[in-house]
Write a structure and sequence with these properties.
The complex is a heterodimer of chains A (389) and B (311).
Chain A lengths: L1 H17 L3 H9 L22 E6 L5 H11 L3 E6 L2 H10 L6 E6 H9 L34 E13 L5 H7 L2 H4 L8 E3 L3 H11 L10 H18 L2 E2 L3 H7 L4 E5 H10 L10 E4 L8 E8 L6 H11 L2 H11 L2 E2 L6 H6 L14 H5 L9 H15 L3
Parallel strand pairs in A: 1-2, 1-3, 5-6, 5-7
Antiparallel strand pairs in A: 3-9, 4-7, 4-8, 4-9, 4-10
Helix pairs in contact in A: 8-9, 9-16, 10-11
Chain B lengths: L1 H5 L2 H17 L1 H22 L2 E2 L6 E2 L10 H12 L1 H34 L4 H9 L6 H12 L4 H8 L14 H25 L3 H9 L4 H12 L1 H17 L2 H6 L9 H10 L4 H34 L1
Antiparallel strand pairs in B: 1-2
Helix pairs in contact in B: 3-15, 4-5, 4-15, 5-9, 5-12, 9-12, 10-11, 12-15, 14-15
Classes of the chains: A alpha/beta (389), B mainly alpha (311).
Chain lengths: 389, 311
């Protein structure tokens, strides 16, 4: 009986191996799609493809009505794939795990590598006349000289969102980043951004260090020690949920993006709660991190013309305004400045500082992409912080 | 075997053919195991001991074992043995142990009741137990965040019953909250295999225990409980394995508090959101090694019990 069972298993295993299941899998895993910079631009005046237009983006980061309008205008379907992080989307595009036409929200820290890795195609601006609407700072951004491969989608600054009914705005103004370390009365209601560069750099800026792209291990380790203090001091939470947690009241003080407060005021306050309870502080120009997300067309897009038309559509002033009313993140268009958005009733006057001024954009600190070793320093520190210090 | 050899050739053939057919039945399973276990584990190993594309940060698996780079693994092992990751493993183990305890306390009586006490409408009861599966796990966790908020129903009920003066912030990186979430999420996985095991339990043995003068409690302790150990073991294995890799229960219930980070969170960070997939894959292998020890224990116990039953 024992020998027959062994025979049975051996024969089955031989048959399984004969299926050759392992070989193609290993080969496909080994294919990392080595590419080089893509210089091929699509020709002028091409007819758009029939679609569907495949887009990858964060969840809730484009107005579904805007997508529906685009579908109606061009008679095509759109397919949206959602992702959680910038690293995730770059990895998945590079490995071929997702195949899309448009990357809707690229971080400044990855565009350079995506270009160098041949993942993006140079844009043919003849399809994107609305690029003229863009704030002039983004005509020649540091991450993509000449904006050859990308157009800006949204922009925002990093500061502190808080509840004005729980903490005096004058106190936040006086304490700056220390507000977060001093919030011991609000233990469990304090959060920092779930982003290693944002959170660690905040700790550096608190100590007066403004080289936001440093790879000095000592500075990073000190920043790690500082944010680790927050675990015991204020039972810090780590997420990007402040846009809803502050208006709902579960978070009182949060390191967050300026646009989150605009989104909070627009759609997340419980019934009967005034938007006066929302406050935002940010450091002065020159010490203020102002960053943006960008859109691009992938090198192997199956519908590149349609993808160009989509980028153009999103840069239309009216479309962008409609998108903003739902997303809450500021479009990088010169017409939609603070005055316009406040007069139109989209941004409360007391949250005017959520819209970075020209001076703040001009002098904004920016996160640049680091090499693998530099990133590893931040990631290692972030892993240690999240482990509990 | 000798009996088979002695049979005339004509009678042997059909038996051989049928054994080949039976062997063919195992092909899909073996193929599945090779494709999705052996190859997958080797792929994870190749990533753990491989490199990373310096530009796009994608993993570059090293399929040749002679060229493996052990740097990432040794860094991770060092952090597990001497640093912060050790407490993450310990915390994960403690959460699993507590949640398993909760599953036993809640699941055993329910499974016993369904298997041994209920005579009619047993199907209805089982359907009710499976009912939570109809709702996505994430939805159920999100529902808990509403219940556990400072002004949520949990605090309201506790204050109404005078069990608490001030509302407690359950979502404040509280370990109990994570354990409650794990119990809630996994208790149906625990009950079902236990129910199947208890239902097959030979009732005559329990009757014999009572006939021989044992009290109800003594019968339970000396007959029912030992006989339900295989079921308990199977149910424990089925719940421990997914709990060990869980990373969303604590993420949702504590808003990403570093106080409740589990191994799964670190794996998710390194594999999904970092430029160090080798570290994530190394953690996967270490976690697998820990679970492998548990599985070996389970197999040894099961084999021992099988032998004892055959004797």
């Amino acid at each position: 009986m024992r020998s027959s069972r062994r025979d049975f298993l051996a024969r089955s295993a031989q048959l399984g191996v004969a299926l050759g299941a392992g070989v193609p899998l290993l080969q496909s895993c080994a294919d990392n799609g080595k590419k080089s910079v893509n210089n091929k631009t699509i020709a002028d005046g091409l007819e758009p493809e029939k679609g569907p237009l495949r887009i990858v983006n964060y969840d809730s980061y484009v107005n579904p009505d805007v997508l529906a309008d685009f579908e109606a205008k061009y008679g095509v379907k759109t397919e949206l794939t959602t992702i959680f992080s910038d690293t995730e989307v770059v990895t998945k595009i590079a490995s071929g795990a997702i195949k899309v036409d448009v990357q809707h929200s690229m971080a400044n820290t990855s565009i350079g590598n995506m270009i160098a890795g041949g993942l993006l195609q140079p844009l043919n601006k003849s399809y994107i006349p609305n690029f003229a609407n863009v704030i002039s700072n983004f005509n020649d951004p540091f991450y993509d000289p000449g904006a050859k491969y990308s157009v800006p989608y949204t922009f925002f600054g990093t500061g502190i969102g808080y509840r004005t009914d729980r903490i005096d705005p004058a106190d936040v103004e006086a304490q700056g980043w220390d507000t977060i370390w001093n919030a011991t009365d609000f233990a469990g209601e304090v959060s920092v951004l779930d982003d290693e560069r944002e959170a660690l750099v905040m700790a550096m800026m608190r100590r007066g260090l403004f080289d936001v792209n440093t790879v000095d291990p000592e500075v990073i380790n000190q920043a790690l020690a500082d944010i680790t203090e927050l675990i015991d001091l204020v039972s810090v939470k780590v997420n990007i949920e402040a846009y809803k947690d502050i208006p709902e009241g579960t978070t009182s003080i949060a390191q967050t993006w300026s646009a989150d407060l605009i989104a909070s005021a627009a759609g997340y306050l419980p019934e009967g709660v005034s938007n006066d309870v929302l406050g935002f502080w940010h450091p002065p120009a020159g010490e203020y991190v102002v960053t943006n997300d960008s859109m691009g067309v992938l090198a192997d897009a199956e519908h590149p013309v349609l993808a160009h038309l989509y980028l153009n559509y999103l840069l239309d002033n009216d479309v962008s305004e409609k998108n903003f009313t739902w997303v809450g993140y500021l479009p990088a268009l010169s017409k939609l400045d603070a005055d316009y958005l406040i007069n139109a009733g989209y941004v409360p006057e007391h949250l005017r500082n959520c819209v970075p001024t020209q001076e703040e954009i001009d002098n904004g600190l920016v996160f640049k992409q680091l090499d693998v070793d530099g990133e590893a320093l931040y990631e290692e520190a972030w892993s240690k912080f999240n482990a509990g210090g | 075997m000798t009996a088979v050899v002695d049979l005339p050739v004509a009678e042997r053939r059909p038996r051989n053919r049928s054994s080949a057919i039976w062997a063919a039945f195992a092909v899909p399973g073996v193929g599945w195991l090779i494709a999705f276990f052996v190859v997958s584990v080797y792929a994870v190993t190749a990533v753990a001991f491989g490199a990373v594309d310096p530009l796009l940060k994608t993993a570059q698996p090293q399929w040749n074992p002679f060229a493996w780079d052990f740097d990432a693994m040794s860094r991770i092992v060092d952090r597990v043995l001497h640093g912060d990751l050790g407490q993450v493993f310990a915390r994960t183990g403690a959460y699993i142990a507590l949640a398993l305890g909760g599953c036993i306390l809640i699941g055993y009586p329910v499974a016993y009741f369904a298997a041994r006490v209920v005579k009619r409408r047993r199907g209805l009861l089982m359907a009710a137990l499976v009912l939570p599966f109809w709702i996505s796990y994430l939805m159920r966790m999100l529902a808990w965040t509403n219940l556990l908020q400072p002004d949520g129903y949990v605090n309201k009920v506790l204050r109404f019953l005078h069990l608490m003066d001030e509302p407690r912030n359950w979502l404040n990186g509280d370990s109990y909250t994570v354990v409650i979430g794990l119990i809630y999420g996994y208790v149906p996985f625990f009950i079902l295999p236990l129910f199947a095991s208890l239902e097959r339990l030979d009732g005559r043995l329990i009757e014999a225990g009572r006939d021989l003068g044992a009290s109800a409690f003594q019968t339970f302790r000396r007959v029912t409980l030992p006989l339900s150990v295989p079921g308990l073991m199977a149910a424990s294995v089925i719940t421990i394995l997914p709990m060990a890799g869980d990373y969303y229960t604590n993420t949702y219930l504590t808003s990403g508090s570093p106080k409740t980070t589990m191994v799964g969170n670190q794996i998710e960070f390194f594999l999904q959101r970092s430029s160090q997939p080798q570290s994530g894959a190394s953690l996967v292998l270490l976690l697998m090694a820990c679970l492998f020890v548990l599985m070996m224990y389970y197999l040894v116990i099961t084999i021992r019990q099988q032998r004892a039953a055959e004797r």
